[in-house]
Write the C-alpha cells for this entry.
Amino acid sequence: MGKGIAQKIIDAHLVSFDEETGEIAIKIDNTLTQDSTGTMAYLQFEAMGVKRVKTERSTAYIDHNTLQAGFENADDHEYIKTVASKHGVYFSKPGNGICHQVNLERFGKPGKTLLGSDSHTPTGGGIGMLAIGAGGLDVAVAMAGGAYYIPKPKICNVVLKGRLNPCVAAKDIILEVLKILTVKGGVGKIIEYTGEGVKTLSVPERATITNMGAELGATTSIFPSDEITREFLKAQGREKDWTEIKPDADAVYDETVEIDLGTLAPMVACPHSPDAVKGVDEVGKIKVDQVAIGSCTNSSYMDMMKVAKILKGNTVHKDVSLVIAPGSKQVLTMLAENGALADMISAGARILESACGPCIGMGQAPKTDAVSVRSFNRNFFGRSGTKSAQVYLASPEVAAYTAIKGVLSDPRELDIDLTVDMPKEFLINDNLVIAPVSEEEADKAVVVRGPNIKPFPLNTEMPDTIEAKALLKMEDNITTDHIMPSNASLLPYRSNIPHLSKFCLEPVDATFSERAKAEGKSFLVAGHNYGQGSSREHAALAPLYLGVKGVIAKSFARIHMANLINSGILPMVFKDEADYDKIDLNDVLEIKDARSQVLGDVIKVENKTKGYTFDTLLNVSKRQRQMLLHGGLLNYTKNQGK
Ligand code: MIC
Ligand code: SF4
C-alpha cells in the first residue's frame, strides 16, 4: 500500500504507537517558540532541569509582543534571550521577523519534524516539513529530548487541479478549503496537498495554505518537496537542505477533497469566523475603514510585491487607514532596496515593523463599528482589540485594491499584470540571529529574570471526589481569544498568570474571573470545538489558577485539549449532546471516585441540583490518564517511577 508524504515523515520519526489508544509518539528534530508563549515554555524547560536542548535546532523568536509600552515586554525578551543562550537555543531578535516566515526562509528543512509553541507552525508544511503547533510545555518536553504524542491522525488528501486565474490567490484556495471543511473539519487530521495544481504554486503560496490550515483545526498541513521547493531553498542559499519528498503513486488516504483552481474567485471570510467564507462579489462593495496587510499568512516577498504593484501610483482612499507589516527583515530589506517600499509609502501606507502587530491586537485596533479587511488568518470576535469591529479576511490583492477603492473590491477589475517572479537570490543576512553560548560556557551564563516573570501555577493530584458548580455555559466554537484574550494591554503579562487570570473568559462573561475565584473550584460547560485557535497554554493555566477542575464540552479543539490535560484539567465530552441542554448555570456537579473513573473511557457526572447523572467521555490516552491523576504533565514527569 503506497504512502503519502505525511505518513512517510511520521514513519521515519515514529518512536512508539499504542494500538489500543491509537496514540503515536514522534521524534522532534526542530522546535520554535515565540515570545508570548516562549516565556512560559522556557520556565517549564528550566523546571525540567535539562542543561542543553537535545534537538537538532531550536530557535526562540521575538515577534508577537514588540510594542514595549512598559518594562514587561523588555523583561520577557531579556529572559528569553538569556535562557535561550544558556540552554543551546538560537535567538531571533525583534525586528528579524515573524517566526513562521523567518523559519520558512532560513531554517526549515523538508522531511524534518518541527514542533512550535504557536498554532501556525504548520507554515513549515509549505516546504514539506511535518510542522505542528503545540502548547509551550509540549515544546519544552521536545527541547528536553522527549517525543511528541498525538492521536494517530487521519490523512485528508486535497487534490488541486488546474491553475489559479489572475488576481485569484493562494488565500482563496485555503478559504475554499475552510468553506468545505469548516473550522472543526480538520480536527484529528493532516491535510496533504497533491495533484497537478501543486506545481503551479510557489513555496510562499503553499505556506499561506498550510499556515491557515490551523483554522481547520487540523494537526498540520503539508505539500510535497519538489523542484519548486528546491528553487526556493537555492534562492535562500540553502539548496543543500533540500530533499525530494513526494507521495507514492498509489498512496492511500483516509479521505479526498478535489479543488479545481480554475473555478476559484476572490473570497473573504466574514466576521467572526475564518470559515464564514463568501465571494467578494457576493458580499458587495461594503465601505471599509481599515486595511491591514501582513501576518504569518501573507507577508512574503511575493505577497508584498503584488501589493506594491497595486499601490504604485495610487493613493489610499481618504477614509481608509492602510497598514502594512512585511513578514521578515529579509522581505523588508528587499522591498527597500528595489523601491517597492517607496511605492507603498508614497501611496499612503503606514509601514509597521516586521512582527505580528495588529494580527494579535498589538496596536492598530480599528475604530468603533469599523470594517477592517485584513490579509491575516483569524477574525475571531474581539481579536482586533475593538469588540464592535467587523473583520474580513482576504488575500493581499483584495486588501490592497480595497484600500485604494475604499470599498471591498475585486482585484480582477484591475488591468495590470500582477505576476511576480521568484527571486533567483533572496537577500541573505542572518545578523539578527544570535547563536547560543557553547556548552563549556553555559554554566557561567546568567539568566535574567525581571519582576514581570512570575512562577507558573502547578496543579495538585486529582482528588477522589470533585464537586463544583458549572460557573459558565458557552456556545460552539469558543476560541482561545475568548478564554484568554490577548491584546496590547494583556500580551505583556504572558509570564504573569495571576494578572492574566483576571481577564480569563472576559469576552464571554466579565464576571467569570471574580466568581471563579470566590468559588475556589468550578466546571465549565461548552459546545463544539471548545478552545479553537491559538496554542496558548495560558488558556489552560489561567483557568487552572482560578480553580477550574474540568470542562464538559460537545467537542474540543486539538491543542487546547492537550493543554488542559497538561495542566491536569479534565476535558470531558458529552456522550449524549442532549445533556448539554439540561445543565443550567450554577448547577452543582459531582464526580465521585474520580481517580478510578479517570482510568476508564466514561466519567459519570451527577447533577446534584437537578438530581440526575449523565455520562461523559474521556477520549484520552493511557499516558494522559496518568497525567490527569498526577495533576498535569510536569507533576507526572517528576513523579514517574514513584
Ligand atoms: C495567534 O495567532 O493566535 C497567536 C497569538 O500567534 C497564538 C500564540 C499565542 O497566543 O501566543 C497561536 O496561534 O498559537
Ligand atoms: Fe503572529 Fe498572527 Fe501569525 Fe499568530 S497568526 S503568529 S499573531 S502573525
